[in-house]
Amino acid sequence: MRFTIVTLFPEFFDSPLEAGLLGKAIMRDLLSVVRVQLRDFTCDRHRTVDDTPFGGGPGMVMMVEPLVTALESLREERPDTHTVLLTPRGRRFSQAVALEWVESGDITLICGRYEGIDERLVQGGFVDEEVSLGDFVLNGGEVAALAMIEACSRLLPGAMGNEESVPNDSFYQGILDHPHYTRPREFRGMEAPPVLLGGNHAEIDRWRRQQALKLTRQLRPDLLEGMELSPADRKLLES
Ligand code: SAM
After folding, report:
1. Average confidence (pLDDT) per 10 residues, the chain, 239 residues
2. Are 108 and 185 contained in the same domain?
3. How far is the CA of 60 from the centre of ligand 1 (A)?
4. Predicted TM-score (pTM) of this structure
5. Are residues 17 and 56 in the same domain?
6. Which H helix or E strand runs over 206?
7. I need a labelling partner for 81 at 20 to 30 A (CA). Which of 6, 34, 72, 89 fits?
8. Ligand 1 centroid vs 156 CA: distance in angstroms?
9. Of the candidates 107, 101, 99, 109, which has an alpha carbon nearest to the alpha carbon of residue 67?
């Protein structure tokens, strides 16, 4: 899979893209992340990418021209890339979006800064979609881009240390993950559930599925709405 990030701060990604499983996925060529400096697509001496807002008001607005020049140049190289503007007003990022992107295989992420981006970038059809990390405002799109890239990387075949862990992850099958326990068996009067120590794997699987369903109903009932539960799952939830 390939990501191209259009940003004013390519160096922001230096250490995160080298660390942990994400770094390993890149080293093993399962994922490539290309950073593009937006200022390389300006044509003035000062490499200007922003200007004061028409109509007045605080802050600066990112200019449409360097962005369009950058995107057109990238599209010449990769005509099928799916171009995403990162913005708080966009479709909310989720595991489902991550899966879509992994299937698509080639994503370009545009990181805004300042007050935002000249509306004509969207109006002119230069992006395929607008996506948000959540209902809050970041200083720029870089943190959002990194979170989205990492979420996608977990879904790439061969990218995780333990492939079995991904299908149990929260949201992968539409529900939350089950609770986890490790040593010591007892901590400040709290015992680990005996079923996990009994060695009966069918029982353990059943308990974990039941706990995952129970936690989902308790903490995120919205996830269960409209979900077709199997008869076995319904029985587990009722018991
Ligand atoms: N004035 C804008 C608003 O209220 O919608 C926020 C601009 S923000 C300071 C600068 C840039 O950060 C945005 O253009 C966007 O690229 C990025 N950004 C901020 N919050 C984001 C979020 N929740 N999801 C994705 N990108 C975000």
Report:
1. 98 97 96 98 97 98 98 97 98 97 98 97 98 98 98 93 83 96 98 98 98 98 96 95
2. no
3. 13
4. 0.96
5. yes
6. helix 201-219
7. 89
8. 27
9. 109
